[in-house]
Amino acid sequence: MLSAVGGIGFISISAAYYYMSDAGDDDALTQPQSLSLIWDTKAIRHIGNQYRLIVPVENSAHALSNLLRAESFNAGASIVSRLNESITHDFETGNTVLVDGWILSVTEARQCALASTLQPD
Fold first, then answer.
1. Does residue 68 contact residue 111 with C-beta atoms inside 8 Å?
2. How high is the mean pLDDT of the chain?
3. Which is more confidently placed, 26 or 67?
4. Which of 45, 54, 61, 77 has most Cβ atoms within 10 angstroms of its Cβ?
């Protein structure tokens, strides 16, 4: 049986590893793969700006980055794989948002929003 302190320490170490292991993957967070096939960076930023207007509590790069990292399922997989899993899961569960006439997974919309905070028009 783990003590409360031991359990918290384990969670803290696991969380620190999880976030540190993705430190070099920030570019993947701002590049929605599927959307990049049909939109240029200007369109992605536009969608991101629109999403941030719809969901103002997700307006900062820090908040968006944390949300994108937290919604990933398989901590052992690459950030791109985890994001793709999250996108698929969003569509399967109806976790979508209508932005500028497009139905996007919330993960995709957050990626666009993060891109818009880091690369303003």
1. yes
2. 81
3. 67
4. 45
The whole-angstrom separation of Cα 79 and Cα 103 is 23
Question: Which residues are registered as beta bridge partners of 97?
Answer: 104
Instruction: Work out the pLDDT band at 8, boundaries 50, 70, 90.
Output: very low
Q: Residue 34: beta bridge partners?
A: none
Q: Which residues lie closer than 8 Å to 110 by C-beta, 6 or more apart?
A: 51, 58, 64, 67, 68
Count of positions (residues) in the chain = 121
Q: Which residue type does 75 have?
A: A
DSSP structure string for 51-71? HHHH-GGG-SHHHHHHHHHHT
What confidence category does residue 100 fall into, taking pLDDT thresholds of 50, 70 and 90?
very high
The domain limits of the chain are 26-118
Cα(42)–Cα(16) distance, rounded to whole angstroms? 34
Q: Which two tokens stand for residue 49?
A: 């700006």
